[in-house]
Amino acid sequence: MTLNSITPPPIQRCYHCDEPISQECQFHLEILGESRHLCCAGCEAVARLIVDNNLTNYYEHRTQTAQKSNIIPPNLQALQLYDHQDIQDDFVIENDQQHKQISLSVDGVSCAACAWLIEKQLKKQAGVITIEVNITTHRALLVWDAATVKLSDLLIIIHQLGYQAAPFEVDSQEQNYQQTMRHYLYKLGIAGIATMQIMMIAIALYFDVLDKHDNSFQNYLRWISLLIATPVLLYSALPFYRNAWRNIKTLSLGMDVPVSIALLFAYSASLYATITEQGEVFFESISMFTFFLLLGRFFEMRARRHAAAISANLLKLIPTMATLISGKKVAAKTLKKSDVVTILPGECLPADGIIVKGRTTINESMLTGESVAVQRTENDTVFAGTINVDGNISVRVMHDRKDSLISNIVRLQDHALYSKPQIALIADTVARYFVAAILVIALSTWLYWYIYRPQDALWITLAVLVATCPCALSLATPTAITCSTSSLGRLGLLVRRGHVLETLCKVNHVILDKTGTLTEGNVQLVTTKVFGQHSTADILMYAAELERYANHPIAKMFIPYQAKTALFDKVENVIGHGLSGTINQQQWRIGKYEFVSHNQSTHPPATNNQHLNDYSIWLSCNKRIIAAFKIEDPIRKDSKQLVNALKQQGMKVTMLTGDCSVNAQRVAQQLDIDHLQANMTPISKLNYLQKIPSTDISLMIGDGVNDAPVLAGAHLSIALSGGTDIAKSSADIVLLGDRLLPIIAARQLALRTRNIIHENLVWALGYNLIILPLAIIGLVAPYIAVIGMSTSSIIVVSNSLRLLK
């Protein structure tokens, strides 16, 4: 064997950038379950960030290796990965061809000033459509133009402001929360231990336990206090400095600015007094300030977490694994449209779909708030997160996880939380100006006391800064709104817009649709009257073929009579009137009598006014009426209770329907509805709404296509879940269950929310107005000030949590 015949060892290449790896470089990292070789510390840092941020699917789907770059810092390089389409598929919703929407987790947001700062900076950027930050959930809703700006560019801006932003995931959010709480406990523990130690020393210094003539021992104890307080100032109080520095950098004012100033000034003055051996020290106040502030924030975070977790926890109902029809186990999040899965009794459904085999009962209480399981059989729609109670079923997947009903519910609830009502905007603005006023008042207080009693100037100023921090004012509204929105979700009411709670309190005129709203929408054919030579079977088939092109309870009634293939050409749906179609050059119409008869006064053979009153649906061919249909639609069991409850609350109740006056009058009499408008088209419904007195705050409840204009035009609107998509997209609230009484519960909850917000604001403002003059004149000690401020915040949050009960 010659030397030249020896095969050289293969060159190892970097798993991240595919560059050759030199023998001197030995970097390794476990990626996708295997140890991977990396060429340098930079690639290792980027790869580690990809793994830590749960973005390893980047390596599974990438079409080329990453480019090596030493210009962009590794943490910002990781953000650029969010621009990849395969990664965005897991988080991003496309509103249209260019606008994209994403829900972000934002760490470091502590008050309304933080939210205002992020929104202000991003709204300046070209391509940002909307950015709304919710300080209670620590989340942000971002809509941007992908053709104008990259997602990574916007995330980098948030990071440059000092906040950490990433796509929201329930599991990672839970991990971040636990990590944040653990760090708070470390800081809280150090501050608490230091406070106990320094307070023992302070007792000796302040209560003349030591010999006044022995200055050396007093100075020794001051130095010990300095050593104990320093870790508190430099480590435990870091969250306050970070928030304050963000505000100062961007010339905005947050609640941590006065707190940080108080802590740093007190420490600086105490350090000077210790070194020069003259003057007062405030080391015990520094430790106590920090301890009680952290304690208040800790309880506040736990309370806010409890309020915000309910809607997010819906996503946890979706199982992590699913069983394909072949028996193979796969991750539920990887299911795609048209996959078929099997679900055993007791299992949760992993995706939205249609039952293709079997029958069962489904517990949908997590979506609708109704505890009674519902029957489901072949061709019925079922939803992810619901529970299969007692049958073996096979389900064809219809939507990916991000497009599932439960994901849409969480997304729409979040959108409602981001949309701030007017009272919340006012409170945020007041809080920002209040901080500026506190700083001015504190400076004026220091100047006054420095002139007349300089030895007390510092501690009185500290008390003013801390006691009046507007933490409670900033939390008064958003926490209450988050709690009430979560409670509405448990009632089976999906809130889509932020003004719902505010407007629901003011409603005094309720407008109700009839078919599918006050009635079950389960329309049943009672009688078919034929005029002419056609058989009843043919008449039903022609009627069903025309109704094939409608989405209404009446159209569903005719489904069993449809032909195997469509018969009509050029079918036109005249909303509010009926349908017309052509077959063999014959024009057929089905719908209201006036529409079907082309407004002719001639009646069909053997008919009279009694027939016109008895029959609701008519069928004609070439302008000649050939059939009529008598239908019935059972009234919902709780319709009567709903109407009675609304009237007892002093509301005007009107039924607005496109049905004939005879049927409408019968339903109105059974439900004791005094105001009725029948034979209404979509346009006439909207005209009626526009003509009501300006003093009427209207609530429209409906479900059909013909209700969409009036749903959009009312002050507040509710669409039923069984209604059409256009009705639900026009409404402010979607009622997920079949019961109407949750609407009454929603109004009661809205009234409670308004009262609690007013209580919170009265308490927060009242506390500050009372404590401020007392602090200015020197009647509030610094430790009393911090206890009062922390207690005020906890009271406000705890009061809001009552809405969850």
UniProtKB/TrEMBL annotation:
Location(s) in or outside the cell: Cell membrane
PROSITE patterns registered for this protein in UniProt: ATPASE_E1_E2, COF_2, HMA_2
Keywords, ordered alphabetically: ATP-binding, Cell membrane, Ion transport, Magnesium, Membrane, Metal-binding, Nucleotide-binding, Phosphoprotein, Translocase, Transmembrane, Transmembrane helix, Transport
Secretion signal, residue range per the UniProt entry: none
Family matches, as Pfam families: ATPase-cat_bd, E1-E2_ATPase, HMA, Hydrolase
Membrane topology term: Multi-pass membrane protein
HMA domain mapped to chain residues: 100-166
Gene Ontology cellular-component annotations: plasma membrane
Chain segments annotated as transmembrane: 184-207, 219-241, 253-275, 281-299, 430-451, 457-481, 761-780
Domain of life: Bacteria
EC numbers for this chain: 7.2.2.9
Entry annotated with the keyword Repeat: no
GO MF, one example: copper ion binding
EC class of the enzyme, as a word: translocase
PANTHER family xrefs: ATP7, ISOFORM B (PTHR43520), CATION-TRANSPORTING P-TYPE ATPASE-RELATED (PTHR43520:SF5)
NCBIfam families recorded: ATPase-IB1_Cu, ATPase-IB2_Cd, ATPase-IB_hvy, ATPase_P-type
Official protein name in the record: P-type Cu(2+) transporter
Organism field: Photobacterium kishitanii
